[in-house]
Design a protein that fits this description.
The protein has 414 residues and is mainly α. Helix content is 70%, strand content 3%. The longest helix has 48 residues.
Length: 414
């Protein structure tokens, strides 16, 4: 009886401990993430109403390069993943640097998302809290994961996805369920705090979803196969752009300036600002069934040019843009509902570039509701299988084969 009481007391203490630590982390990152999200919205709105700001993008790139001279580690999302895998040091300075540089990128028209900043902000702040609290090695890694969940949830307003994503993205094929409660608590707390500050996530309403008959099932299979190919192309383009920049323009100052000038040139030639920033208005149009044919390819190019030259942000929102516009185009061509195809495309490409099928499925539920479940389930599963071992993050490890019950322990391809 005494031993039973001791076990129960230990379990309750563990729960209380993580409720406090993760709740505190989530609340703090909810405030920081909420303010960051509001800042992105404000600077984007200002840029849209003042088109001349685009011409200062090269100067913003130089400012970003100068700021990152303060971080010898050149910390990015890959280092946050390494912090979970091996305890790599994530400096606290990462938080203000990534926030400021991402705001500058969006303010002046670089093509990027926000979630890279959210993951780095969360990993940096939570990791530092764990260090200050003198947590053990494994608890410290769990703190970093809970910080990632909190940052993701604060920006996207999707706590279910955020909880699982931090556990799934680091090591594909293995999820550390010891982090389930901390990530859950942090994600929920962050969402509530962000919404309290007026930062709300994205949600879409699909028109009536068609029946899941054999014809629609076949179309979804073809769409998922195409999205897997689009995912591979997007990841390859991002990595190759970065390598080419470094090869042909070794000086990082010239690299950032050249990238900014190239974005300006492409925008002027196309006569549209649709591919600047995160591109949420275009995603919303795609969800309404409206898209131009080459939108997904153009967004890939703009994002590769921006991030490859040194601008900061994230790749996930651009991947949602690519998936939504490609899916909408597929729907227009094949007769499938363009809105439903756009939703499936978003989930499929997100899965293909992150190698996170469970998170992708949950994201589709939180963004679009449960009515299209059979379509989302089939498209995500096929995209995961067919997208191979490519990914956005080269520090991501693939522990188990996608095709066999085989331990492979390899990094994603670049």
């Amino acid at each position: 009886m005494k031993k039973f009481v001791e076990i129960c007391a230990g379990r309750i203490w563990l729960l209380v401990r993580w409720l406090v630590l993760a709740g505190m982390t989530g609340a703090l990152l909810g405030v920081l993430g909420g303010l960051f999200g509001r800042s992105i919205t404000l600077v984007t709105d200002y840029r849209v109403s003042h088109p001349w700001m685009l011409y200062l993008l090269p100067a913003a790139g130089l400012a970003i390069v100068g700021m990152y001279r303060l971080d010898p580690y050149k910390t990015g999302t890959n280092r946050v993943l390494e912090g979970i895998q091996s305890g790599a040091f994530i400096p606290l300075r990462t938080a203000p640097l990534i926030v400021a540089s991402t705001v500058l990128t969006h303010a002046f028209g670089g093509s990027a998302g926000r979630e890279g900043a959210a993951l780095q902000l969360g990993g940096s702040v939570a990791g530092t809290l764990g260090k200050w609290l003198k947590l053990g090695e494994y608890d410290h890694r769990i703190m970093i994961m809970s910080g990632m969940s909190a940052g993701f949830s604060a920006l996207f307003g999707t706590p279910l996805t955020a909880t699982i994503f931090a556990m799934e993205v680091t090591n594909v094929g293995i999820m550390q369920y010891a982090a389930l409660v901390p990530c859950c608590v942090a994600a929920l707390a962050a969402k509530e705090m962000a919404e309290f500050l007026g930062a709300h996530g994205e949600h879409f309403t699909l028109p009536s979803v068609a029946a899941f008959g054999w014809k629609n099932a076949l179309l979804v299979i073809v769409l998922a196969l195409c999205c897997a190919g689009v995912s591979i192309l997007f990841c390859t383009m991002l990595h190759q752009m970065e390598h080419l920049y470094k090869k042909w323009i070794p000086n990082e100052w010239f690299r950032a300036a050249a990238g900014g000038c190239l974005v300006i040139l492409m925008t002027v030639l196309l006569g549209t600002t649709d591919y600047l920033g995160a591109g949420m208005p275009v995603i919303e149009l795609a969800m309404e069934g409206k898209v131009i044919a080459g939108a997904f390819l153009l967004k890939m190019v703009f994002t590769g040019v921006s991030l490859g030259s040194g601008y900061r942000g994230g790749e996930i929102v651009p991947s949602l843009f690519v998936g939504a516009t490609f899916g909408c185009l597929f729907g227009q061509v094949t007769g499938m509902s363009p809105s439903l195809a756009a939703a499936c495309g978003m989930a499929s490409v997100f899965c293909g570039v992150t190698n996170c099928p469970i998170s992708s499925l949950l994201l589709s539920f939180e963004l679009f509701g449960f009515e299209g479940m059979p379509f989302f389930l089939l498209s995500v599963c096929i995209s995961y299988l067919e997208s191979g071992y490519y990914g956005l993050y080269h520090s991501q490890k693939i522990f188990y084969s996608k095709t066999n019950l085989q331990y492979i322990n390899t990094h994603t391809k670049e």
